[in-house]
Write a structure and sequence with these properties.
There is one protein chain. The protein is α/β, with parallel strands linked by helices. It contains 7 helices and 7 strands. It has a 7-stranded mixed β-sheet with strand order 2-1-5-4-3-6-7.
Length: 208
């Protein structure tokens, strides 16, 4: 009897173990979620899926923030949106996401001047299922970490970063990594577009 109880307790405890984030080489999970999107007729609630970008043979930039109506998050969302043309020129589409509902997203956009005319979709992971499956759901607060994923056109994660709740991201770094990935070559520390890749240098020396 005691042994059975111990197994039951152990099984219950196991369900609360925090798993790590999905990583390089993992596939973006399948999902269908509501999202706030700016259309020709104004702001609409639409369905968005994991194939949003890949069905157009594009890269996906999926960035998560912890909570709507906070202070660091809008600075990042606005910056990603202002740089959306830079991502588009690199054959990539940006999706922002949090565990807030689509109606909370809508209310935030309607009340925050900087978010009123966003061109990028705001995904609502209301059930928290996607954040949990991706391993970025905080075990205590049950909100998403400040995580960013670069996903290739085949739906495979090629890069990720997770920031502390109080630290904002650097969008330039996301663009730099995307550029580096798209060379499909070796790139040195701090490499930026226009610089020689390590692969090119090695070829010049007939090292490869």
């Amino acid at each position: 009897m005691c042994g059975s109880i111990k197994k039951l307790v152990a099984g219950q405890q196991a369900t609360f173990v925090q798993k790590g984030p999905l990583t390089i080489g993992n596939r973006l999970p399948e999902f269908t979620k509501k999202a706030i999107f700016t259309k020709e007729n104004g702001i609409e609630i639409v369905d968005i899926t994991n194939t949003y970008a890949s069905k157009q043979e594009k890269w996906t930039i999926l960035f998560w923030w912890p909570k709507d109506f906070t202070f660091v998050c809008p600075t990042e969302i606005i910056e990603f949106d202002e740089r959306s043309a830079d991502f588009t020129s690199r054959n990539a589409l940006v999706i922002g996401a949090s565990t807030d509902s689509e109606f909370v997203h809508l209310g935030w956009r309607q009340s925050h001047p900087g978010l009123a005319k966003l061109s990028i979709p705001m995904l609502a992971d209301t059930s928290k299922s996607l954040a949990e499956e991706m391993g970025i759901l905080d075990a205590d607060e049950k909100v998403a970490y400040r995580a960013t994923f670069i996903i290739d056109p085949n739906g495979i994660i090629q890069w990720l970063s997770v920031y502390p709740m109080n630290v904002g991201r650097n969008v330039d770094e996301v663009l730099r990594v995307l550029d580096a990935l798209q060379t499909e070559e070796l790139t040195g520390c701090g490499w930026t577009p226009g610089q020689q890749t390590v692969t090119t240098k090695l070829k010049e020396k007939n090292a490869i």
